[in-house]
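Archive entry. Fields below.
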Amino acid sequence: MTRRGLLFVLSSPSGAGKSTLSKMLLAADGAISLSVSATTRPPRPGEVDGKDYHFVSVERFEAMVDNGDFFEWAHVFGNRYGTPRLAVEALLAQGSDVLFDIDWQGAQQLHHAAGADVARVFILPPSIAELEHRLRARGTDSDAVITARMERARAEISHWSEYDYVLINADVEACFAQVRTVLNAERLRLARQLGMTEFTRGLMG
Amino acid sequence: MTRRGLLFVLSSPSGAGKSTLSKMLLAADGAISLSVSATTRPPRPGEVDGKDYHFVSVERFEAMVDNGDFFEWAHVFGNRYGTPRLAVEALLAQGSDVLFDIDWQGAQQLHHAAGADVARVFILPPSIAELEHRLRARGTDSDAVITARMERARAEISHWSEYDYVLINADVEACFAQVRTVLNAERLRLARQLGMTEFTRGLMG
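PREDICTED_STRUCTURE:
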């Protein structure tokens, strides 16, 4: 028996640091790999197909849904997002943990599908005002877009209590250390230690 | 609303390093305090009343049981051990986390009494042979005493799957780092973060 892989979920409202923290984690920790979602939304500048997302047509996405290819999928603001099942299973089979940079809908479905193998972390901004300040400081979005983003942020934050851990991202380095602490502790949970050594395998009888 | 304190349980068979790890943790982490158990067994050389244990008579212990003074208590190999309720509640009220250096019976009762506020860590030796080697290396015990200790160790180890985390103590510094990781991650759990900042207090409505 080999170690059971861990499904590690990071969610946050846009602007609270989830994507930055995910990239830092993937760079720092060789034992976890990103689950690349499929989406019907068009790529943003700089996004790479197969790395950031699998960009697919609506028709292709629907065929994958019909085929049972998704671990979880959801409509989010007019686009579809889904987690390809085979890719996750392949990573777990290699003994890798899997990182999910997904929203509350995905986290909820993943939790229902995989239960105790999922650890869910929600990243909060220090305050709503600070979140808005960060979005405005990017200088890329109009007032209308920022208003819409803040609405989405409030909706995302309303699901914070469905998570196992809650981190407050006031300082990205400090928050990143907390992300790593949570991941490393989750790796020490009983269910993930069962096959770790000859001794523990022996204890299982 | 203030932060909810955490009841942090370390259990292991004798010789697997629980007491060493407990002392290291209390020295390194100012936010956790030891729950000092009451016991009817006589002090061993070097043990200090009120620091290692509260040493009490059988009559006094029974009066405390009748009085409901214990969070949990148990008979262990002819002696009684119990966790005084008021002392734990006083530590929690001060905002401290509380460390319990107790056996599987105590851990089980504490879990039933305090549920989600308890995080239980079991320390395993690398193997049964290594545990016996460590007990013999102390050079203080006769063969008969070591045989009895090994019997007790096997009984304790049989309860390892009732814990939340399992650590293997092959190297005490590495195992200590894991103990700290688990404690720090448990502090980041949702239920313990509710009162942490003005923002999270606001989210609670």
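CURATOR_NOTE: Chain A touches chain B at residues 122, 124-128, 157, 160-161, 163-168, 178, 181-182, 184-186, 188-190, 193, 196-200, 203 (CB under 8 Å).
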